[in-house]
């Protein structure tokens, strides 16, 4: 049985990892071209040059990550440079930022890799003895970087799928899948999409490819039932992209009753398209920003898997500063090829067998505005 109180196992786990990160720090002592210098702090020794490279500087998730890194720079005596692509999909913007970090003589890079198109630039950085940590998006292959701090995106998607299947209560599922890209392969994209399908109890074909599963069949999650996948449309992780993608899906089939979205801006755009068409559907998503949690409370999003970008940035910053001063390298979570920073499903509609927290509890640990 799932409970939505501060006493749930899921919430206690989330709180525990947050406290663990804070304890580790206590024990330890945007656009391209913009930078902020961390003041001398508990890090000790000479300042360490670190570049944080996000996918863009407007998505609330990456804005929160940037703010967290800037706040932690002083604690670790880090000279921080913040850079990003111009928008989702801008491989070249990230490549340029990596090259700039090498030329500047930085000790390390924190990056949310856009796609495998930046892998060769990351290799150049590591060949130049920079320690490279991926945040949020594990690269493919995982050993492209030294380590990744990220949400288990497969599990995030599965939580969404399990919840959705339970809510359908055996009714047919007419599904729209609003992904990130259609022209790039990114682990966060296929892991959330495929995880959602697995949570629904729908067989996937290639676990690293979106859109190749059977378009009709039976889902086995919850009470089970028939499913139809109407579309896989890319929304680029943005609200306007989500709206356009949802409009395309509705044009194919106006009877969609379940919408998976790669993130919460996409979900908001999808909801706008549904409202304009006088339609309603269950919407599930991933992120858990404060705005997204608010969308759960208002009923726009049925459930969202909350992740923790501030923790990713904090742990990454601390790791590079420690390594640059001769400390030990961080280790991956047992059984995984990355360090799992945790996930909790936020919803106000209970589903038996699915751990979650309420929107009120999610609001206490959310990020962004």
From TrEMBL:
SUPFAM superfamilies on file: Periplasmic binding protein-like I (SSF53822)
Keyword Cytoplasm in record: no
Residues covered by the Periplasmic binding protein domain: 51-327
Listed GO CC annotations: cell envelope
Signal peptide: 1-26
UniProt KW keywords: Signal
GO MF annotation, one: carbohydrate binding
UniProt keyword Signal, yes or no: yes
PROSITE patterns to which the protein is assigned, alphabetical: PROKAR_LIPOPROTEIN
Main localization of the protein described in the UniProt heading: other
Subcellular location: Cell envelope
Superkingdom assignment: Bacteria
Similarity annotation: Belongs to the bacterial solute-binding protein 2 family.
Name of the molecule in the record: Sugar ABC transporter substrate-binding protein
């Amino acid at each position: 049985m799932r409970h939505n109180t501060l006493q749930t196992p899921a919430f206690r786990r989330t709180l525990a990892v947050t406290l663990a990160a804070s304890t580790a720090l206590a024990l330890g002592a945007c656009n391209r071209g913009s930078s902020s210098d961390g003041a001398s702090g508990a890090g000790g020794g000479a300042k360490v040059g670190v570049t944080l490279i996000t996918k863009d500087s407007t998505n609330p998730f990456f804005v929160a990550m940037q703010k967290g890194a800037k706040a932690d720079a002083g604690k670790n005596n880090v000279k921080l440079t913040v850079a990003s692509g111009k928008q989702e999909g801008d491989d070249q913007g990230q490549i340029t930022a990596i090259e700039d970090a090498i030329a500047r003589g930085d000790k390390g890079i924190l990056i949310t890799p856009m796609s495998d198109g930046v892998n060769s630039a990351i290799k150049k950085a590591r060949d130049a003895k920079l320690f490279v940590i991926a945040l949020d998006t594990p690269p493919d292959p995982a050993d492209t970087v030294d380590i990744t701090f990220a949400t288990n995106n497969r599990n995030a998607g599965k939580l969404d799928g399990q919840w959705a299947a339970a809510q359908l209560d055996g009714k047919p599922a007419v599904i729209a899948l609003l992904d990130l890209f259609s022209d790039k392969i990114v682990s966060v994209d296929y892991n959330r999409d495929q995880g959602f399908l697995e949570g629904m109890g729908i067989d996937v074909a290639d676990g690293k490819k979106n859109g190749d599963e059977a378009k009709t069949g039976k889902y086995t999650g919850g009470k089970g039932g028939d499913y139809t996948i109407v579309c896989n449309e890319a929304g680029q992780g943005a609200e306007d992209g989500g709206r356009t993608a949802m409009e395309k899906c509705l044009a194919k089939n106006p009877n969609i009753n379940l919408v998976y979205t790669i993130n919460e801006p996409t979900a908001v755009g999808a909801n706008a398209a549904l409202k304009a068409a006088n339609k309603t559907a269950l919407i599930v998503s991933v992120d858990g920003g404060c705005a997204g949690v608010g969308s759960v409370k208002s009923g726009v999003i049925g459930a969202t898997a909350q992740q923790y970008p501030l923790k990713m940035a904090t742990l990454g910053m601390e790791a590079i500063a420690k390594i640059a001063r001769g400390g030990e390298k961080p280790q991956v979570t047992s059984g995984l090829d990355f360090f799992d920073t945790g996930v909790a499903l936020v919803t106000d509609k209970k589903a038996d067998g699915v751990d979650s927290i309420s929107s009120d509890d999610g609001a206490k640990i959310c990020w962004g505005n």
